[in-house]
From TrEMBL:
Origin species: Rotaria magnacalcarata
Family to which this protein belongs: Belongs to the FMO family.
Superkingdom of the organism of origin: Eukaryota
SUPFAM superfamilies on file: FAD/NAD(P)-binding domain, NAD(P)-binding Rossmann-fold domains
Lineage: Eukaryota, Metazoa, Spiralia, Gnathifera, Rotifera
GO terms of molecular function: flavin adenine dinucleotide binding; N,N-dimethylaniline monooxygenase activity; NADP binding
Keyword terms of this UniProt record: FAD, Flavoprotein, Monooxygenase, NADP, Oxidoreductase
Protein name: Flavin-containing monooxygenase
Length: 430
């Protein structure tokens, strides 16, 4: 049986594990945290983090909760991992330190994965060998901390939003937040985006409580930046406005993407972001052009991230099984450049975390696997219904049918339109 290691047990790592196990691979997941589910775990989430989307659109198959709390998402993902006997496949507290091959282009050579495993007080370093690697370490694994002039004079705390873990840490504190994204944190305080919120690129969905607190003037917004910390508790903005006393500065100051377990030479060779470039030049945002037996999953930001990851996992599995062959190196590079130019012209960046339209990528992946883009047999649901993950439930069956050369029936949806049709027929026969 061929062996695969997955680096990271966030939602994308879990769905990749499930797909690869179902396809017959021997899978081991290494996760550096003490619990699974990535952002949606105690280590990954900030205090009171909720999903930013309506329920039914962030799920693998059946999570439905309007603005689910991280605890809810965590419980759901644990339940999901139980579908594939998580304890025998996931190694928690296991940080991958390096992923290495002496010749990246050699498909016959196995990958050496060095992992630091920590127990209560002990830690050990061990090297494992695998046929394939899937890297799913998360788009938001590393974050920026700004350096503010005069910060050494400040007697309060300056923390990244990710490190705001409890109500006690936040309550009764006069807070300033740089940036806007961590909207669940503001039970009271001031937030300071540097750009106007009506800017297309920084508009952001917020929890209803945020809007209410803003209406009550308990949260005040300023389009400005912190210029200087003047003394132990006084902050001045570049609009000359002064805030005092301030106890806590929360930095919602974005994340960046790096792969610290790949060497300084290997990351650029594979087309990955590194010190001097944010480009992410993978074929279909999954596969390096000339390094076989390795894939990257989950490096797309969209409202349908989990669904995209599920379909992408099938692509990766197809690629590892050799069912789907890649086009020539030139064709892959041409496509990468075309997409990069488009993204640059449209979004002004080549960084991977621009917002993709979720259906576009899902359809690209389905097309790559020769699977139908139409997912239902009901015109109304197909064209007007929300694209829910249950449209993807039959992917394994469809692929088996595809490989045998037989057709697979579309799922039947009994929608409101069907009810109308049924009633119409029933009454016309009376
Ligand atoms: C604040 C915030 C809010 C969000 N809200 C939403 C939302 O509402 N809806 C939505 O769809 N998405 C949302 N997202 C996007 C979120 O990234 C995805 O929902 C999802 O968590 C991505 O899954 P992932 O597995 O790719 O990455 P992650 O969840 O980040 O998981 C990556 C895992 O890899 C592990 N890891 C990293 N490096 C190593 C290593 N060297 N060795 C071992 N393990 C490693 C990490 O510990 C982590 O567990 C949000 C993200 C953030 C940061």
């Amino acid at each position: 049986m061929q062996t695969v290691t997955i680096v990271g047990a966030g939602p994308a790592g879990l769905v990749a594990a499930k797909v690869l196990l179902t396809d017959g691979f021997d899978v081991t997941i290494f996760e550096k945290h003490a619990s699974l589910s990535g952002i949606w775990s105690f280590e990954g989430a900030y205090y009171n983090l909720h999903t930013h989307q309506p329920g039914g659109t962030i799920e693998v198959s059946d999570l439905y909760d309007e603005y689910a709390s991280w605890e809810h998402a965590h419980a759901y993902l644990c339940k999901y991992a139980d579908k594939f006997d998580r304890t025998s496949h996931i190694r928690l507290r296991s940080q991958v330190l390096s992923i290495f091959k002496s010749n990246l282009h050699n498909a016959a050579e196995s990958w050496s994965i060095t992992v630091e495993q920590t127990a209560e007080t002990l830690s050990s370093i061990e090297t494992f060998h695998f046929d394939f690697v899937v890297i799913v370490s998360g788009l938001f694994s590393s974050y920026h901390m700004p350096s503010v002039r005069g910060q050494e004079k400040f007697s309060g705390s300056i923390v990244h939003a990710n490190n705001s873990k409890s109500h006690e840490q936040l309550v009764d504190q006069k807070k300033i937040s740089i940036g806007f994204a961590a909207s669940n944190l503001y039970d009271d305080g001031v937030f300071k985006p540097q750009y106007a919120l009506n800017d297309e690129l920084v508009s952001f969905p917020v929890q209803p409580i945020f809007t209410e607190l803003k209406r009550q003037n308990r949260i005040r917004g300023h389009v400005s930046a912190i210029e200087e910390i003047i003394d132990s508790n006084t902050v001045r903005l570049n609009t000359r406005k002064i805030f005092s006393p301030i106890d806590l500065i929360i930095c919602s100051t974005d994340h960046y993407l790096r792969f610290p377990f790949l060497s300084d030479a290997d990351a650029p060779t594979m087309g990955l972001p590194h010190e001097t470039s944010n480009d992410f030049d993978l074929y279909r945002r999954l596969i390096p052009v000339s390094e076989p037996r390795i894939a990257f999953l989950g490096y797309v930001s969209s409202n349908g991230t989990w669904m995209i990851d599920e379909v992408a996992s099938h692509c990766v599995s197809n690629y590892f099984k050799g069912v789907q062959l890649l086009p020539s190196r030139e064709e892959m590079q041409k496509e990468i450049l075309t997409i990069r130019d488009f993204v640059l012209s449209r979004f002004g960046t080549t960084a991977p975390h621009i917002r993709y339209f979720c259906l576009e990528l899902i359809e690209i992946y389905l097309h790559y696997m020769d699977l139908p883009l139409r997912r239902t047999n009901n015109w109304w649901s197909e064209n007007f219904g929300v694209y829910r993950p249950n449209r993807l439930k039959t992917l394994h069956g469809e692929m088996q049918a595809r490989d045998r050369g037989v057709s697979f029936p579309n799922q039947f949806y009994f929608s409101f339109f069907h009810v109308l049709q049924f009633c119409f027929r029933f009454y016309s026969e009376l």
